[in-house]
Amino acid sequence: MKRMKQNGGQLNFEHTQYQHYQNKQWYPKFNLTEDAFAIVAMSYITPEAMKMKIKFLQEFKRMKDYIQTQRREVPTDPFDQIELLALGTTKLNKRVEQLEQAVNERMTVDYSQQQAIRNALNRRVYKIWDDGTINNVVHDSRKKLFSAAWKDVKSAFAVNSYCNILQKDFNEAITYINAWRPRLI
User: Fold this and answer.
1) ORF6C domain location, by residue (predicted)?
2) Range of the domain at 139
3) Does residue 99 sit within a domain?
4) Is residue 98 one of the residues assigned to a domain?
5) Model pTM?
6) % of the chain with per-residue pLDDT over 70
7) Full DSSP string of 46-87
8) Is 30 within 8 Å of 13 (Cβ atoms)?
């Protein structure tokens, strides 16, 4: 029973042991193949075991039906083969396009774009500070002006960090920063 002929003589039950992580004692352990598990599971006769057997057999039947419905006959005519390949290629191209679109909609700015955003904001804040076109009561230091600028950028693009601005919004972010004006109150 340890080895079954249908399994090519492969070991189905392997007796081994393991060490418990808390008390460091060694305990016996049996490694089972899927076939061995099925044999052991099918040998129990409790009501719970019967329920498990029924579920196992139902799932096996479902998988078998699924595999059989997925099989397609390969056409023998070369033109039909080409048509089948073209259909598969078209479906694959559509899936790739969908994946590319999903990635583009979720991909955030890379490091060089982050650096460009930082540089643009720094230039804008220093220009506004040096021009003196701010309300000095509200923004009495460059630190407060930087804080206001970053807050407005994050709010405009609905992100918690400028690093999370989407790549597709990068040019819009640069334009926004270059036109940014601090609030007057």
Assistant:
1) 82-183
2) 111-179
3) no
4) no
5) 0.51
6) 93
7) SHHHHHHHHHHHHHHHHHHHHHHHH--PPPSSHHHHHHHHHH
8) yes
